[in-house]
Design a protein that fits this description.
The chain has helices at about 10-20, 40-50, 90-95, 100-105, 115-120, 140-150, 150-160, 185-195, 205-215; strands spanning about 1-10, 25-30, 60-65, 80-85, 110-115, 125-130, 170-175, 195-200, 220-225, 230, 240-244. By secondary structure, the protein is α/β, with parallel strands linked by helices.
């Protein structure tokens, strides 16, 4: 199977490590990590790369992103199917599953975090959980209920108004490519200097491995057929769906 991977550079070392043991032919294209600060611009970058992908050359386009501030919302599959992890942001992908994400962050959706990929790119600052950025939707609770149902609306509202004290904590998600580097020590030292509590969470590259290996169970990945586009769902399970 031949695939084009379009991916945030925050996963670059994890991707290269996984490709060493991958039987598929995968051509990676990375976007700059700071593009996440401009979701509309990132969406344009991803769509342009998708639009120039020909079925004679590739069987699938793989996207190494979560919903990421709505950056992939509205992305169209042209002539080649697209495969995307069901994840709200990079944090879920670095942790390896939605379930692990829920364990660590469901009770503190405003908690900020960093990773080896962020630090490698020169960004040691903490990144805010994408679930806490839905205020940019500018939508009322009644409209949320009408559009997504009462349970999902409640989930979104609770995500927007977290009741935790995680702002005083520095979380570092460590994945295997960075085990032997001193990034953990840098974050721990930064936490000490700021008077914050440091927390280490062991990451897991299973979602990236599954994406590259063509293992795409429906509950964890969305396959977008040609002529369909991505539509955000904003719930903790489905996350995204395909619409014509």
């Amino acid at each position: 199977m031949r695939c084009k991977l379009i991916c945030c550079e925050v996963f670059s070392r994890e991707i290269y490590k996984e490709l060493l043991e991958n039987d598929n032919t995968v051509f990676p294209v990375f976007t700059e990590i700071m593009s996440h600060n401009y979701p509309d611009f990132l969406r344009e970058q991803i769509q342009q790369e998708i639009d120039k992908t020909e079925p004679v050359n590739f069987d699938y386009v793989l996207l190494g992103y979560g919903l990421c501030g709505n950056a992939i919302n509205g992305i169209y599959a042209r002539a080649v199917p697209i495969v995307i992890p069901r994840a709200h942001d990079c944090c879920t992908i670095l942790l390896g599953s939605k379930e692990v994400y829920q364990t660590h962050f469901a009770h503190r959706p405003s908690c900020r975090w960093t990773s080896g990929g962020n630090i490698k790119s020169g960004d040691i600052s903490l990144r805010e959980n994408e679930l806490h950025s839905f205020h940019e939707l500018n939508i009322s609770y009644g409209e949320l209920v009408e559009k997504y149902g009462e349970d999902n609306a409640t989930y979104i509202i609770e995500s927007l108004t977290p009741k935790d004290s995680s702002e005083n904590k520095m979380v570092f998600i460590q994945t295997p490519p960075y085990d032997k580097l001193n990034y953990k020590d840098k974050v721990e030292k930064a936490a000490e200097n700021k008077g914050c509590q440091f927390e280490l969470i062991e990451g897991n590259t299973r979602l990236l491995r599954m994406l590259l290996n063509g293992v795409w169970p429906e509950e964890e990945f969305l396959v977008i057929p040609p002529g369909f586009h991505v539509e955000a769902v904003y719930d903790p399970v489905q996350v995204i769906k395909a619409e014509p």
